[in-house]
């Protein structure tokens, strides 16, 4: 992964984290690793545990950020969530999967362009 792409992803995760905090979510973890991979964000929304996939795009040439969450990625996130839940000492009453899609267009003249953030609650 290129450095530019990695930085865009990190920026997107920070934007998503702050967005969710403003909506009243409690962030439990960021970049949570399991044997199977990594979960971008884990949050608490009331009594519901939320596994959040963050997708960030700087161009629409390859589709939107939300469109990049494929069937295969959804399946992977389900596996990661199961591994995470099995490692908890207590049972979770409810959980769901959200997607935060961010479009942060690149600027050719150095001006700041505000990102567009879409939050898909219960995305799958």
From TrEMBL:
Q: Which InterPro entries match?
A: Restrct_endonuc-II-like, tRNA_endonuc-like_dom_sf, UPF0102_YraN-like
Q: Annotated Gene Ontology MF terms?
A: nucleic acid binding
Q: Where are the transmembrane segments?
A: none
Gene3D superfamilies named in the record = 3.40.1350.10
Under the heading Pfam families, the entry gives: UPF0102
User: Which family is it part of?
Assistant: Belongs to the UPF0102 family.
Q: Which NCBIfam families match?
A: PRK12497.1-3, PRK12497.3-3, YraN family protein
Return the protein name: UPF0102 protein EDM57_16115
């Amino acid at each position: 992964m290129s450095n530019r792409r990695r930085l865009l992803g990190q920026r997107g995760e920070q934007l998503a984290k702050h967005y969710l905090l403003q909506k009243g979510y409690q962030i439990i973890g960021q970049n949570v690793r399991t044997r199977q991979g990594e979960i971008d964000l884990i949050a608490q929304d009331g009594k519901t545990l939320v596994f959040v996939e963050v997708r960030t795009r700087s161009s629409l040439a390859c589709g939107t950020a939300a469109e990049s969450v494929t069937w295969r990625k959804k399946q992977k996130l389900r596996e990661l969530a199961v591994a995470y839940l099995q490692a908890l000492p207590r049972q979770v009453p409810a959980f769901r999967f959200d997607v935060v899609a961010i479009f942060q267009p690149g600027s050719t003249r150095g001006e700041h362009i505000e990102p567009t953030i879409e939050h898909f609650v219960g995305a799958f």
